[in-house]
Design goal:
Blueprint: E1 4-9, H1 13-23, E2 30-36, H2 40-43, E3 53-55, H3 58-62, E4 69-72, H4 77-88, E5 92-95, H5 103-115, E6 121-123, H6 131-140, E7 148-155, H7 162-165, H8 187-197, E8 202-209, E9 218-226, E10 232-238, E11 246-252, E12 255-259, E13 265-270, H9 274-280, E14 290-295, H10 303-317, H11 329-344, E15 348-349, H12 354-366, H13 379-387
Parallel strand pairs: 1-2, 1-4, 2-3, 4-5, 5-6, 7-10
Antiparallel strand pairs: 7-11, 8-9, 8-15, 9-10, 11-12, 12-13, 13-14
Helix pairs in contact: 4-5, 6-8, 8-11
């Protein structure tokens, strides 16, 4: 194979975004040759385009021979079934976040991918190619930072209106999404948290369901985490708070890293390790000398496209994936376990029992009585939602 024929299933916000840069030939050695969506109006803009086939049935597209690889950009619960079907039919697969709606489904999808090692299986976690987070990861592994002791991430600038939640009948429902702000808006931050710091060993979630909106899932959360080395952390988020905050702090024994709303990365470095200083200082109120620096960076240009190009290169050349699909398990598990902890009102050690959460989620789905009136959303609203 010298060229990848690519398909997209799901033409909502993110599916249309992927289609846009693929049709503009922004990815080398790759061509968008098919799209699929069960919602007929979603297919209309792509019909009658030369070289592009449209399918109302994803199953038909997967078996059509028109594509070598598939981007899955559907509502969450379809990621697992479509991903498994595509892998079993010989396609390479890139799954949008989350790779599955819950951990048990993620385990099923990953097992099928492992049983088909010749197929490339990637996850769309584009924050991993952003220079600021790549630099943070580098610093966390360096002697300049020392040992991680505390993590704070407050990301409450995901403000959403009732119109947003009414734009799709699947939105903010147990059956359609399997969760709220944790599984939908915060998946990339949860992926980044575990990519930078590793998975915590114990968590405790405090989640409010429908605190600010007429929805059945969580829209306001405060969570606590502990790592095996004794480090602690909090992760706070909301879709009902305005103006909101986005601030990440990572504190080590040798310094502190901060990323705030101005998107600047600041590093305060202690002259000496704070624990060693405490143990040897003769003064009760002394502090290690410190210096401050601002680390410059430029945002990645089309980080989604970077991952798709890497996906194509992995198919054609065997290039290692930047974001292997199996690594999407971490963010799914964190989204699930923080919510599950809140619902059962207790701390949970990781790894979590995936079957226990699946059973609880099925119970929530079975007992759901939530109904929403679906309203139309403008193209401008879609763009704002994606860019957030």
């Amino acid at each position: 194979m010298k060229h990848v024929h690519l398909g997209i299933v799901g033409l909502g916000n993110i599916g249309k975004f992927h289609a846009g840069y693929l049709l503009d030939k922004k990815i080398s050695r790759c061509e968008l040759t098919a799209v699929s969506d069960a919602f007929a109006p979603g297919l209309a803009p792509y019909q009658n385009r030369p070289g592009l086939k449209t399918f109302a049935s994803c199953e038909e597209m997967i078996r059509s021979g028109a594509i070598d690889a598939l981007i899955v950009a559907t509502p969450h619960f379809l990621h697992t079934t479509i991903g498994i079907d595509a892998l079993k039919n010989g396609l390479h697969v890139m799954v949008e976040k989350p790779i599955s709606a819950h951990k048990a489904d993620a385990e099923r999808l990953i097992a099928v991918a492992q049983a088909h090692p010749k197929q490339v299986f990637g996850g769309m976690f584009q924050m991993r190619v952003e220079p600021r987070y790549k630099k943070i990861k580098q610093l966390l592994a360096s002697a300049d930072f020392g040992q991680l002791v505390r993590v704070n991430w407050v990301i409450t600038d995901w403000f959403r209106t009732e119109a947003y939640y009414a734009s799709g009948g699947w939105r903010a429902t147990w059956k359609g999404e399997g969760g709220g702000v944790l599984l939908n808006q915060c998946l990339h931050q949860l992926d980044m948290l575990q990519w930078l710091c590793g998975m915590p060993k114990t968590v405790r979630g405090f989640c409010q369901l429908g605190r600010y909106h007429n929805i059945e899932v969580e829209d306001n959360i405060t969570t606590y985490m502990e790592w095996a080395n004794g480090a602690t952390g909090v992760f706070i988020s909301s879709t009902g708070e305005a103006p909101g905050t986005n601030r990440l702090e990572l504190c080590g024994t040798r310094g502190k890293l901060v990323v705030a709303e101005d998107n600047k990365l600041r590093f305060t470095r202690n002259e000496s390790d704070m624990i060693e200083f405490s143990q040897t200082s003769k003064s009760g109120f002394a502090k290690p000398d410190a210096w401050n620096c601002e680390i410059p960076f430029e945002p990645a240009i089309n980080p989604h496209g970077i991952l798709v190009q890497n996906f194509v290169d992995a198919i054609l050349d065997g290039t290692p994936l930047i974001t292997p699909g199996a690594e999407g398990m971490g963010s799914v598990e964190l989204a699930n376990v923080l919510l599950y902890s809140s619902l059962i009102n207790q701390s949970i050690d990781l790894p979590m029992d995936s079957k226990a959460w699946e059973n609880k989620l099925n119970e929530l789905i079975a007992n759901s009585r939530h109904e929403k009136k679906v309203v139309q959303t403008t193209a401008e609203d879609f763009t704002k939602s994606f860019n957030k």
